């Protein structure tokens, strides 16, 4: 890869990072709006998945029961996606409950993995991350259902912010390498 290509890649990384930082800051500033927006996006994605399943079921070489199961699944996905799309606040509550459970379960799995990995490098960090995940899951669950107004948007905002910072730093490293 030539120097010009590296510089162009670095600039793309930088602009993507800046955009991610801006989106992250907005999501952190107004997490309720971000949460509902994410629920709407999930609804759209589920509808797209429903259409894909329908085409796969209809175009499948499978016969009988498998084709019917595929069509029924696509209809259920479509109903679910439309429900999410037309009820984004209620969907946000459901997604928040799932996130709380996932954080707690993943935290427990990380702590157990860290305990079981005797002598493993990084096990302390793994355990620490697991404990943080458990605490975060409990905090979300303890404030449920009102945590639906902030949890998803805040978490996604923080993720975008850190991803954006990472992209900007990567851009700087690529520019120095060029």
Q: Describe the global form.
A: globular
Largest sheet: none
Total number of domains:
1
| Gyration radius, rounded | 21 Å
Low-confidence spans: pLDDT under 50, at least 5 residues? none
- Oligomeric assembly: single chain
What is the total tally of β strands? 0
Write the element-wise H/E pattern from the N-terminal end onward.
HHHHHH
Please identify the structural class as seen in this structure. Answer: mainly alpha
Count of helical segments?
6
Helical coverage, percent range: over 70%
Report the portion of residues in β strands.
under 5%
- For the terminal residues, how far apart are their CA atoms? 10 Å
Average per-residue pLDDT, rounded, comes to 88
Describe the structure.
- The longest helix is centred in the first third of the chain and has 29 residues, at 31-59.
- The chain has 6 helices and no strands.
- It is mainly α and 178 residues long.
- It has one domain.
- It has helices at residues 3-29, 31-59, 65-86, 88-116, 123-142, 151-177.
- The chain is globular and about 60 Å long.
Short description:
This protein is 87% helix and 0% strand.
Which features characterize this protein?
single chain; about 180 residues; mainly alpha; 6 helices
Give the topology:
Layout: H1 3-29, H2 31-59, H3 65-86, H4 88-116, H5 123-142, H6 151-177
Helix pairs in contact: 1-2, 1-6, 2-3, 2-4, 2-6, 3-4, 4-5
